[in-house]
Structures are given as structure tokens and as C-alpha cells.
Design brief:
It is built from three helices and six strands. By secondary structure, the protein is α/β, with parallel strands linked by helices. It has two domains: 32 residues, no CATH class; 83 residues, no CATH class. The mean pLDDT is 87.
Amino acid sequence: MYQAVRYEPKSFSQRRPDPDRKGKFLSNMQGIDPIPFHLPQIAEAVANGTENDQIWIVEGEKDCLAIDQAWNGEVITTCNHGGAGKWTDEHSAWLAGFRGSVVIVADNDDKPTKPG
């Protein structure tokens, strides 16, 4: 649906596919509703998860990928694009019906993750 792009030095932007030019992108989010990172895993957990399952909300995609690697994919992770403080009700709606626990994992910095 869209990409979150990370640049060095540390900065971010989002872009969406250009409907008129295959393989090209537009540097805006016009007409795009934000979705949580790892949406397929989230959807699977909501549909088939148990009370023992957990979804971890972390601060960024890099954190999700690090946890995925450290836990060999045994933990479901997600985040919003744009960093701390930008989790919305639309993100939370994707978790509706999940029977397990949602764990919020804040970075050790001045901007903890704060779901809406």
C-alpha cells in the first residue's frame, strides 16, 4: 500500500505507488489510510490467535525487525510509521478481536510509544 523509507543520517518519509507509472512512487500519502507494520501477521493473529498469544507494539520498523530476528519470528511485532506518538485509532482497529495480550514496548528515550 505504501512504503516507509529510512535515510541516513536518520530521517524518514512515506511514499505510495504511482498509479500511472508502474514501479514508480509518489512522495505523499494522499488517499492512503495508515496500516500497522506486519499487517499479514496481525491479521493472522486476530483470526486464529489464542489467549496465550502476544502482539508487541514497538516504536519503529527497525525495532520490529530486530525482535523478529532475536526471537526467530516467535513474537508478533508491529508499529506505526512515523515514530513515537503517532499510533492512531485506525491502527488499533486492526487489533479488534485479538484474544491475546497487546504489549507496548517503549524505547528508552524521551518519546515513548503511546498508542491512541
